[in-house]
Structure formats: C-alpha cells, structure tokens
Amino acid sequence: MLPGEIQPMNTKKRILILGGGFGGLYTALELEKVLGRRGDIDVTLISSENFFLFTPMLHEVAASDLDITHIVSPLRKLLKRVRFFVGDVEAIDLEARKVSVSHGESHHHHELEYDHLVLALGAVTNFYGNKGLERTALTMKSLGDAIHLRNRLISKLEEADFECLSDRRNELLTFIVAGGGFAGVETIAGVNDFLRESLKFYPNLTENDLRVVLVHGGDVILPELSAKLGRYAEKKLESRGVEIHVDKLVTKVEGKTTTLSDGTRIEAGTIVWTAGTAAHPILSTLPCAKESGRVLADETMSVAGFDGLWALGDCAAVPDTASGGFHPPTAQHAIRQGKVLARNLVSAIDGRKARPFSFETIGQLAAIGRRTGVAQIMGVNFSGFVAWWLWRTIYLMKLPRLEKKLRVAIDWSLDLLFSKDLVEFLTTRSDFVSHESTVPGQNVEASVVPAP
C-alpha cells in the first residue's frame, strides 16, 4: 500500500506535497526538522523527477562549465523521513481530498488521500500561442533542456565545419535567445563564451561566422535590476560579440527564419525561448480563486474556501502586504515560503494560529560571462568581477549537500586550467548487428541496424 492511499483505522494526519522544486523541497525539509520523529503525521512528497534541480546554475551546464550531474541532488538522499513518490499528478479532487497520480512506463494509477495538500507545482514554459516557436524553439527550464542546448551548440559547430556546408554557415552558426531576463541573459552569456572558446578546435570556422543574438521586449535587459546595471550588461555583452535587439519581440518562426516585431528577419539554426512562463496546467482544473493563472493564497499561504489546501512558489499568488502586490516567483522567496508553510501546517494540525509570510528580496545577481556579473544586494549595485564572485559564492552556499558543493567547486577550479569539453551527451542506444542465419558453414548476411 502506497503512502496516502486509503488506510482503514488510520488516525495519522496525511500531508501531500505536490512538486519537488524549491517550494516543495524546502517545505518537506522544514517539516522533517519541525516534526522530528513525531508519529502522528505522515508526509509524502510527489515529484515527476527523482532529483532536485538547482536551476540558478542551469546555464552553466548548457555552457559546459559544470558536469550535468553536479547541480542535481537525489531527493531520496535529501529526505530522511518524508516519504517520496516519483510520479505524475493527473488530477486533483479538492472536494474528495484525493490526488490521482501515475508512475512507471505503464502509467500505473493510484489515488492518494490527504488531510492537507501543498501545491508547489511550479511553472511551465509559455509560448503565447506562437505555433512556430512551439515547434522550433529550445527552452531552459529543466536539466534535459540544458543538455539539449549543449548538444545543439556542439552539433552545429561540427556540421558547419565541413567545407561542403560553407554556404549554410551563417544559418548554422546563428543562435537567438529570446528574453532578456535573468534566464535569457545568463543563457546567452554562457552560450556566447562557449561558442567563441570552442572555435579554435574547428579549423574551418572563424569568429566572423558566428552570430549570437539576444531579443528583449523591454527597453533595457535585466529589468529585475536597475537600468544602470542593465545597460552595463548590454555593453559588456556587445563588446563580446553579442547582438542585442531591445524593444522587439519574436513574432513569427517559420523553418529557419525568425521574424521580429519591427520586421527584421534572421536566418538561425537555433532559437532559445526564455521569454514566458505560465502556471502549471493542472491548476486550471481547480475551482479555487486564481490570479493570472496562479492559485490565490492568503498571507499564511492557505487557500480560501478549501480547508487544508495550501500553495506556494511559482504556482501561487501570495500577497505582499508591504507592497500591496504579490511576492515575486523567485527561488529565494520559495525557499522561505516553504519554511513558513511547514510550520503553519503543524500549527493548523495542532490547533494553533498560523503566521503570515513576510519577506523582502535581499538581492538579485546575474552572471554575464567571462568572470563578470551584475548584482543588486540590499540596494547596493555591484558589477564586474566582484559581482561575478558574489554570484558564485552565494549560489555555491545555497546549493544543497556538501558533496555537490565540492563537485561544483572542483569543476570551477578545473575550468580555470582547461578548455571546455566538446562532448555531446547522447542517450541513444548503440547500433547492433542482426544475423539472418546461424547455420554452420552457411554464408551469413548481416546488416547494421540503427538503434531505436
């Protein structure tokens, strides 16, 4: 019997946490700390992946700065007493207090009951109905996305190096990133550095063959920071060969042609979309109040009208009484929301009053390549090497588990001494030979069969 399934005579309170990102994980970790070995509460975390991904370092995997496994931590190693279920959430019945999940290749189904449900499902990429983007663009939300982008960069370099494709080099070696926020800027900075440092290994390619383009809908990139830092980042990227288009949107993608809102047409073999997110689709099936697709919670992260329902992180709109708006969907907020929510859950079970969540952003940082960065910490601006050093120091401290901290620190140290690896990480099976006959003395016809 799985955790949360119907258990006759069970008097334990059952808490289900949906989502293994920052919000879900830190809620579970804080519950472990608060509950200790308390035996009257069962906690189960449900995630579609068996690891926690440290997304702030995702672009470094794409740019070959870090090994692909060093920014992920197995949830089973992080959680000591919270039960863990790898599966996909397929339906949520708030009236019956049940969650339908499936797992495995056969999509085996289970119905899990709960007394308290925590929604921490995060956000997904939003293409805003642009079908061309949906078919063509790469995204940067998951570990698979970063590996896919890294493979694409290397495969385009390999293909363009052949002299028979010299007439297609402009298209093959043009890379567009749409979105000038943190994800887009850090991605294009890493991509640009990786491509330019790799050219020395491709004898038929030069810097003139490369075209790296950033498209942003606002008047200055990194709008989350000050305009001064945004313009500093623009100048640094442009000095390194990045072509920046501000006040423009990607309006159409047809084949290899990307059209911008001012009519500019760019022939590009690769476009990366970081310009839009939306709440998890399953939230639209819930009858609770929403704010821009996110579940509307109160200051304690409880959802009105449904006893035992809580929400946090990217999928929740949590009021910020100080600003009159909502807390931003950032990792630093989700971590702290998780800690407060865990304690509010225990307070609700024990009949005590929940406390409201209150937190003001401490600072925000972005790495913009070549050991430079921009940062705004407690109202103070930093740029250049100091900001880059702060970025690495702060995020290394935030990375879970000492083992991963050491592995990342070693990767960064080796990066100072050696060039980046030009290795594609492919998951296809190797080819094999299929024999048509095995009769002794008979000629055997064999053919190489490509892996499925």
| Percent in helix | 25-40%
Q: Characterize the main sheet.
A: 5 strands, parallel
What CATH architecture label of the largest domain applies?
A: 3-Layer(bba) Sandwich
Biggest sheet, spatial arrangement of strands: 5-2-1-9-22
Strand coverage percent:
25-35%
Number of helices: 11
Structural class: alpha/beta
Give the end-to-end Cα distance, rounded to a whole number of Å: 36 Å
- The domain tally reads 2
Question: Tags for this entry?
Answer:
2 domains, five-stranded parallel beta sheet, alpha/beta, 452 residues
Please characterize this protein's 3D structure:
The protein is of the alpha/beta class and about 450 residues long. The protein folds into two domains: about 15-50 and about 85-125 and about 280-350, FAD/NAD(P)-binding domain, CATH 3.50.50; about 130-275 and about 365-415, FAD/NAD(P)-binding domain (3-Layer(bba) Sandwich). It contains eleven helices and 30 strands. The strands form ten sheets. Strands 5-2-1-9-22 form a five-stranded parallel beta sheet, with helices on one face. Strands 11-18-12-13-14 form a five-stranded parallel beta sheet. It has a three-stranded antiparallel beta sheet with strand order 6-7-8, with no helix packed on it. A hairpin with a 2-residue loop joins strand 15 and strand 16. Helix 1 crosses helix 9 (about 330-350). The mean pLDDT is about 90.
